[in-house]
Amino acid sequence: MPKLAYLDCPTGIAGNMCLGALIDAGVPPTYLQDQLALLGINQEYQLRVESVNHQGQRATQVRVNLIAEKSSVNNDPTENKRHQLGHRHLPTIEKLIKQAQLPTRPTQWSLEIFRNLAVAEGAVHGIPPEQVHFHEVGATDAIVDIVGTCLGLNWLGIDQLYCSALPTGGGMVKAAHGILSVPVPAVLKLWEQRQVPVYHNGIDRELVTPTGVAIATTLVQTFGPPPAMTLQQIGLGAGTHQLPIPNILRLWIGEAVGSPDAADVPELETVIVLETQIDDLNPQAIGYTYDRLFEVGALDVFTQAIGMKKSRPGILLTVICHPEAVDGCETILFQETSTLGIRRSQQQRHALAREIRTIETPHGPVRIKVAWHQGRVINAQPEYEDCARLAQQQERPWQEIHQSAIQSWQQQAT
Hints:
- There is one protein chain.
- By secondary structure, the protein is of the alpha+beta class.
- Helix content is about 35%, strand content about 30%.
- The chain has helices at about 15-25, 30-35, 75-85, 90-100, 105-125, 140-155, 185-195, 210-220, 260-265, 285-295, 325-335, 385-395, 400-414, and strands spanning about 5-10, 45-55, 55-65, 160-165, 165, 170-175, 180, 200, 230-240, 250-255, 265-280, 300-305, 315-320, 345-350, 355-360, 365-375, 375-380.
């Protein structure tokens, strides 16, 4: 059964509240500390975990206490101060995460969260994501909160994450760019991008932080009521402030009710679309470029015939990949084609839940890719390579093997 988690956020969400809830649910603090040390910034902070009481309710609170004095690698006081404050650009943060050699899922999730945050901040300030100079959201504590949360979810084995509607909060807050209205611009932009349901709970404080909402809008499947689940565990993460109601994020953990098919929920994931036009490349190089792109993580590659300036025929080469594969795909495009520039955009991909099953056919075993939508199998396709292998071995038409596999699947599925 898929393992589900639900973020119940009556007083909002922040990165340290997520960490507190995960530790309260059983993630060992020592595991987080050891993994986070791989980022190479552990000399900048101390992780403090304690049990606190909010309105008579116990919860776990996590604080990332920054170390004011940090050893310097140069004598530039301006540069030293910048590092002490933890201000970093997106490429610097991505490099830290990629070089840390963390588990695969936390690495991918962390990169996606920071990329989405950069896109939102860039939209607010009117600059590309790579030029965003992170302040609060690029500081050391935010890196710890985001990467630590991804590590914790992976340690618990969470397959699908859900979240309640989020409170807007209100009032004003002091930030690096001055006094801002709550919700702050980056939070509003992230809400807009994911169409998050929001409401006012009567508390005029900053209840949702950019770090917290970036985690939710990137990793959560859907916002709203909790999914059908057998509840097994609750993790309670305390916020920093005392509020009129208990300032606690509640993490519900359990297994999906019914079969895996019934638990399926359409999944939105972040993908990057790379595009470039080419009109002066030997067509034989395109096939080779395809293979290289798939080797470095491209999800899909395709071309379209286009007309370019001076009526020259050309092609539009498009690559779809996850955020962490962008650098590798762009490197291949520059190395193997004649392009001088690549456009980059971020999109949400609606991906069906799927798995590979092996069935027996009259000709031998064939793998079938099965996909679900709303708890129902809507697509089942034999793997091309298996059909081709059997067709060659038995000297039969590929179409015959393929059709036989479909018939065998239909017979076994009924």
